[in-house]
Amino acid sequence: MTFSARQIADLLKGEVEGDPKITVHKLAKIESGEPGSLTFLANPVYTPYIYTTQSSIVVVNRDFVPDQPVKATLIRVKDAYDAFASLLEMYNQIKMNKTGISDKASIAPNSHIGDDVYIGEFAVIGSKSVIGDNVKIYPQVFIGDNVTIGSNTILFPGVKIYSDCKVGSSCLIHSGVVIGSDGFGFAPQQQAHNFRKVAQIGNVEIENHVEIGSNTTIDRATLGSTIIRKGVKLDNLIQIAHNVEIGENTVIAAQTGIAGSTRIGKNCMIGGQVGITGHLTIADNVKIGAQSGISSSIKKEGHIIIGTPAIEASLYRRSVVYFKNLHKLASDIQQLKDHVFGK
């Protein structure tokens, strides 16, 4: 699609400086822009590129003052980064505005399908499932029996949702996500190296406005529900075990693993490769640094911790000085022992 500088300025409530009729049909980074592309300048580090970019239109802050001529048409807005983010969102909505049900999809006749739904090739929807309005189900998605998907949710190719699970409205679930697979429950038996599988008969409940990254897995509860509260954002490659509950608006980075029955509070931030053992409680607003190991509950709200086992962040940073010099400290101690006791 093609848009003029004037149309874009009207969308962003900005002001055109240059040719209001010039058009663009794609987006680009400022350093690699081409004629017919739209870009933005928000970070001062990239200012030199505004004088060399080949992009036709550049979105800039209202207070931007060039110190040499700019070839591109400028659109001045209050916040260039926020304005460009809005354009990206609009572009993405247009790109993903699919409707219609493929004749190659398999849909149980007793399932309910809402209005304006897109269901791609080889998608499967099981018995008695409910699909809300404006849901996008991309090819090769599997939805089991008695599943509920809220309105405006998008399931990208290859998502698997097991039976009885619930997904809220306006969620975004990326390729390879598995929701509702069995929790890791095995009972040791008297015979050596023998385990009996414990049936996992609960489900997963995901509230509204949740985003789940590619190849993340969320296990169903043994009993009851594994719960992902509204506004949670999960990165790629995260493992969430049975009966875990993650509080509202918590964000978790890639390769984190959370063991069973742990409760994580609201507005927490958890870095990549964090390991959290089971049956713990993490308070609201806690921040956990990357690669930390959490083996006990964190009861203080707003606590910032890092390390394995995790400790308070400022203490960890002071301790790192000693970690780096352990070899020297060991040598000094040995020399002291030799001096006092002799070799």
Mean pLDDT: 94
Would you identify the CATH H-level superfamily of the largest domain?
A: Hexapeptide repeat proteins
Please mark out the parts with pLDDT under 50 across 5 or more consecutive residues, or reply none.
none
Shape: flat
The percentage helix is 10-25%
Instruction: Estimate the strand proportion.
Output: 25-35%
What is the CA-atom radius of gyration, in angstroms? 27 Å
The major beta sheet can be summarized as: 12 strands, mixed
How far apart are the termini? 82 Å
Describe this structure as you would to a colleague.
It is a single chain. This protein is an alpha/beta fold and 343 residues long. The protein folds into 3 domains: 3-95, Udp-n-acetylmuramoylalanyl-d-glutamate--2,6- Diaminopimelate Ligase, Chain: A, domain 1 (3-Layer(aba) Sandwich), CATH 3.40.1390; 100-315, Hexapeptide repeat proteins (UDP N-Acetylglucosamine Acyltransferase, domain 1); 316-343. It has a 12-stranded mixed β-sheet. A 10-stranded parallel β-sheet has the order 9-12-15-18-21-26-29-32-35-38, with no helix packed on it.
